[in-house]
Amino acid sequence: MYLHPHPIQPFPQMETTTQSDIASIQKVFLNHQETALKWRSSTLEERSARLTKLRTWIKENQDLIRTALWEDFKKPGPEVDLSEIFPVTSEINHTLKHLKSWMKPKSISTPLSMIGTSGQVYFEPKGSSLIISPWNFPFNLTVGPLVSALAAGCPAIIKPSELSPATSDLIQKMIRAIFQEEEVTVFLGEVEVSKELLKLSFDHIFFTGSPAVGKIVMKAAAEHLTSITLELGGKSPAIIDESADLNDAAGKLIWGKFVNCGQTCIAPDYLLVHEFQKDRLIMELKVFLQKFYDPKFEGIEKSPDYARIIGPRHFKRLCGYLADAVSKGASLDFGGKTVESTFYIEPTLLSNINKDMEVFNEEIFGPILPILTFTKIEEAIALINSKPKPLALYYFGNDTQNSKKVIEETSSGNVVLNDCIIHFLHNNLPFGGVNNSGMGKAHGHAGFLAFSHEKGVLKQRVGLNNVTMLRPPYGIQAKKIIQSLIKWF
Questions:
Q1: Can you tell me the distance from the alpha carbon of 69 to that of 131, in angstroms, rounded to the nearest whole number?
Q2: pTM passes above 0.85
Q3: Residues with a known catalytic role
């Protein structure tokens, strides 16, 4: 049952951090370390039971999830189902289907130089884990990593974002209803809570957020040599080649950009369109904006299917980007309307972009779409390569040679051909960034591995020793054998 839009009310505020919250962190962490030792030998049945309980709660409380996300930033019900609930339940289903094979030790081949031995790789839970999640997909990007942690056999402490208080509060209630405190714990509060958590020696940290904060998290992890997964962001480009079907591309781009009001880490940040196609593409983009968000010609502001900006800080930041671009000569091809009282920013198309504009240099993370042009694919590739490596790269076109060049001559977390953002839902594809857009992978088997230590185990036969003749004192025969090993193996 979907929520019906109602008048915009003031956004809820999260309570400030209390000293008792901070004082309890150390105690909970120590309990989690004890749980990690107990869970190290956890069985398939035990892990599956935890995941099944989580899935059951989600399916039985979908209305609560929709309500929370509506309260936080007016996210439409169907959008919640598609981008928050479905990815998590799908991830759980996929994990339950494959967890037995993931957990099973993998036998490896034996090189001739090690004949007589056998080797296996065991997948050991890393131990106590910390999940710090963002506000833009607050349910999905919190519970998704938790699925991977539980699958790998790791207890987790979760710190959700204070900018999405209704959803964060619901996540805490969900976790308390399903798990014991020493298994999974949620700490709410401001940045001070995150700072306290990052002082602790977790066995793995999974952080989703901006590159700037990612550096802070990575520095804190380095103090304890804690392994880390960083899911960050960046300026993800979309190339629309001369061979592209513009009608097909426009519909996919509008949905991929403006779902969640553009507050998506893998949303197309800017378009690179062949100069001969620019005007027609803008026309097609306008058609789909009208079709998706204003079919009755009442104004997009009245659309029940268009979300809002999360809060005042990001609203002001985006309005600043827009004003900066227009003042420096950008053409406002669509949109531009803003309403501060409701944090509404109309879907906006900008062209005539130059390198001095903030929308050219900063990750936008909102409903503003700059459109740049190129004449040769090499120009588009060069522009992309002049910026930090993006989380995603999209190519629209039917020129196999050009698409091959884009894949091979650029670096990004993922590449999607003739669509955008849907790769997030592909459980068999590793998801993640590279360098400035992140490190480590998530989803499916990659997520399981993120929270697992791959432990090599070698077994030698009793009474057999491959290196008997290679022990001191090193005689002529030993030296010959060593040289043979160097030459042939």
A1: 20
A2: yes
A3: 231, 265
